[in-house]
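FIELD: query
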Amino acid sequence: MIVNNHYFHCYSFFLQAYREKEKLLHSYDLLEIPHKEGLYKQVLTDLKNHTQLWIEYRDTDHLVHPGSDIVHDLSHGHYGSTKYHANSNGNQR
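FIELD: result
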């Protein structure tokens, strides 16, 4: 997967592993490069020349909701719940 990440002004490359017809099993960060079109094209060309892997493209300007809110995700570095909890003042944090 290649993500055009506008939040951090970079392209992020990931290797993802799925079991047939199942949800994501593993996701590995491979590479992150700055938003430089020439460098991106060279890396993409090299990747395509050295592998036959299917490439999925994502863009943070067009986020896709996963279907349900993710509140606990051990696969992506979220080692605690991402739910909002009310604090003692009754406010959300």
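FIELD: remark
The longest helix spans residues 37-50.
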